[in-house]
Amino acid sequence: MGTLAKIRRMHLRDGLPIKEIERRTGLARNTIKVWLRKGEMVQPKYPQRVVVSKLDGFTETLATWLKADQHRGKRDRRTIKALYEALTEQGYTGGSPRFQCNK
To answer: Please, are residues 35 and 1 in contact by the beta-carbon 8 Å criterion?
Structure first.
């Protein structure tokens, strides 16, 4: 509600033109015009993004592996490379952002 109220205050109370409001807020003129035309002050709601990851099917497996490794000593824990190789054996087709695997 803050941005919308600020735009309405700048335009109605301070008498600033839309171009100056655009410059100060960084919003497009069309957006400002639409928000000023609305009689009620309701901040627009945008749907939440749904991000699909290749790891979605393997999150439970990874969580159990990490929980099991948490109780082991530091030298006995699996490395990222070992976790990646175990995942690829189970059907994971994605890559790892930490290293390049030479096969």
So the answer is: no
